[in-house]
Amino acid sequence: MIRRCAVFALVSACSAPEDVPSAPVTQATFTPPPVASEQSSVTTPTASAPESAATPPAPRIEIPPEVLAVFEAKPYVEDKCEPAAAERLPAGARRCKYSTLGLDAEVTIANPPPETAARWIVDAADRAEPLAALKEADRAQYVRGLVAFARHVRLQSSRIFPIEGGIIEDMGGGAKVYKFDRGVVTPCEKGNCRCRINSLSPNAYCRYRASVGDDFDVCAKRFTGKDGDEAWRAHCLNNHVVALASDHNEHFRAKAHIVGEHVKKKCAARPCKPAEVVMLIEKELGLAR
Q1: Would you call 11 helix, strand, or coil by DSSP?
Q2: Over the stretch 127-159, which tens digit does the pLDDT of each residue have?
Q3: Cα dist. 12→8, 129, 195, 217 in Å?
Q4: Is 58 exposed, middle or buried (0-12, 13-18, 19+ CB in 10 A)?
Q5: H and E: helices and strands count for the chain
Q6: Taking every pair of C-alpha atoms in the chain, what is the biggest distance, in angstroms?
Q7: pLDDT attached to residue 17
Q8: How far is CA 184 from CA 53, 61, 163, 194, 217, in A?
Q9: What is the spatial distance between Cα 260 and Cα 40, in angstroms, rounded to a whole number?
Q10: Do residues 263 and 271 lie in contact, with contact meaning Cβ atoms separated by under 8 Å?
Q11: What is the rounded distance in angstroms from the CA atom of residue 109 to the CA atom of residue 177?
């Protein structure tokens, strides 16, 4: 009698019956992609090498249609918009006038296209080790996990990156216009100002940077004290500008890493099945109880 069973990270392999010799099982080693060091300012790309000497571009990240579908809805602020050309604004920035929930507001935005936001999600998933382990072992649950991260972004920001101006939201006490400065609401709780579009805090970002070799205290010091909030706002905008020109977003990687570490701890005592891994991810993201 032969019994079949799936083998994947975080899930213990079942043993074969005694009358069937079992082959040795080798688990694939998860190796995160390299992390680019943060730049202190947005720089203009240098001229590329001649075409004959240029390195072939890396293939674009494949986007599961289920992830892209989460971001396809048009952000509600994109109503009456016109180009907003100004120094240090991202390419494609727009100034929009809009109305919702009985209020009017204006905001300058740099919203990522759906495809860009979706690629950030897929790239960042490699930083959540429990989810990355499902990429080959259980594709359906892997995609479900990607969708969870995409839904979290949509619920946090509707894919809106407000450079400056008002965002109308109802946080439970009625509709209100919240003022934003470089992707961060203002005023905000000192030391806990969250950066759009995935609502990352300075502490969470520094914990992630520590995981790739940076000094947590040095990182955290940048975003504390009387100049800390200003430094975080500048960082928030800079990170977004750099990400818009890339297939990855360091803040998305940070969120995925932190969620993955929490799930790993919960699965340490008893290996989790794929569906359990994704359920825990959804709980960490506030999508399930």
Answers
A1: strand
A2: 999 999 999 999 999 999 999 999 999 999 999
A3: 7, 16, 38, 37
A4: exposed
A5: 10, 6
A6: 74
A7: 33
A8: 42, 28, 8, 6, 22
A9: 27
A10: no
A11: 15
167/98 Cα distance (integer angstroms):
10
Q: Token digits for 210?
A: 């520590």
Place of tokens 């680019």: 36
CA pair distance 187, 193, nearest whole angstrom: 9
Q: Nearest to residue 232, comparing CAs of 203, 261, 255, 258?
A: 203
> Cα(29)–Cα(13) distance, rounded to whole angstroms?
16
Question: Distance between CA 143 and CA 124 in Å, rounded?
Answer: 13
Averaged pLDDT, 70-87: 93
SS3 of residue 34 by DSSP? coil
Closest residue by Cα to residue 157 from 112, 212, 196: 196
Task: Please give the backbone phi and psi of residue 175, each rounded to the nearest 5 degrees, phi first.
Answer: -65, 140
Return the domain boundaries, the chain: 64-284
pLDDT tens across 195-244, in order? 999 999 999 999 999 999 999 999 999 999 889 999 999 999 999 999 99
Instruction: Decide if 178 contacts 166 (C-beta within 8 A).
Output: yes
Please say whether the beta carbons of 277 and 134 come within 8 A. yes
CA torsion sign for 29, 147, 194, 88 is positive
DSSP at 115: H
* Stretch (H or E) spanning 95: strand 94-100
CB of 40 closer than 8 Å to CB of 240: no
How many residues belong to the chain? Answer: 289
Both tokens of 288, joined, read 């399930």
Beta 175-181 vs 184-185: how paired, if at all?
antiparallel
Block residue for tokens 């790309």: 45
